Amino acid sequence: MKINCIAIDDEPLALDIIKAYCTKVPFLNLLNTFTNALDTLEYLREYTVDLMFLDIQMEELTGIQLLNSMHQKPYVILTTAYDNFALQGFELDVVDYMLKPISFERFVRGVNKVCERMQKESAEPVTEKNDSLPVSDSKEHTYFFVKTETRIEKVETSDVMYVEGMGDYWRIVTKNRRIMTLMNAKRIEDMLREPQFCRVHKSYFVAIDKIEFVERKHIKIGEEHIPISDTYQKNFFDLIEKRKMA
Fold first, then answer.
1. Domain-by-domain residue ranges, the chain?
2. In CATH, what class is 3-123?
3. Domain 128-241: CATH architecture, name and number where available
4. What mean pLDDT do residues 4-32 have?
5. What is the model's pTM?
């Protein structure tokens, strides 16, 4: 697998280091480098890349502002001399956050994370997800953390009833609380995996064991009536069928 990447940094020496490191990693294909975010945006209008190595502190447009302006983002590794942007990186779903000066060993760890995520996502089409282990069978998936406006909160996976998309935010609903978090759908899907959870609509993930009943194309959980869209109904009803009594 080849990962096509670009690097953006207003320090020529930092770009030279990224270039040198990329040549040492067989699966990286460095397509171009840029010293500012505006030239990067112009390039991305015409070309598709898998990965960006992105500096944060740049003139005219910072790396964070660049990411906020993009509707579709490639995988991103932030490269910076400052450690106070880590939470913003978390909100923007970057793969890694590397502090300068970056050693080659640290660089390799970062690009391996990208490689692993790409392999995982390409290996998990909807039609194969029923083979996944229940979330409760894996210790690493019994809870997860999400960032709210003021803090990072721990959520027990078994407490989740459903998750609702609301614009750029997701509302995680449990029996006792509702948590708003800024996160993309893929990260939600990674945390709420089948067969314990199922996506039933572009805006909804539900906990299978919290379903009270299914009527036509709606699911009743607590006080909520959740729609089942055509895109996800076959996978959902296949999952339900496996749990029906003879």
1. 3-123, 128-241
2. alpha beta
3. Beta Barrel (2.40)
4. 95
5. 0.51
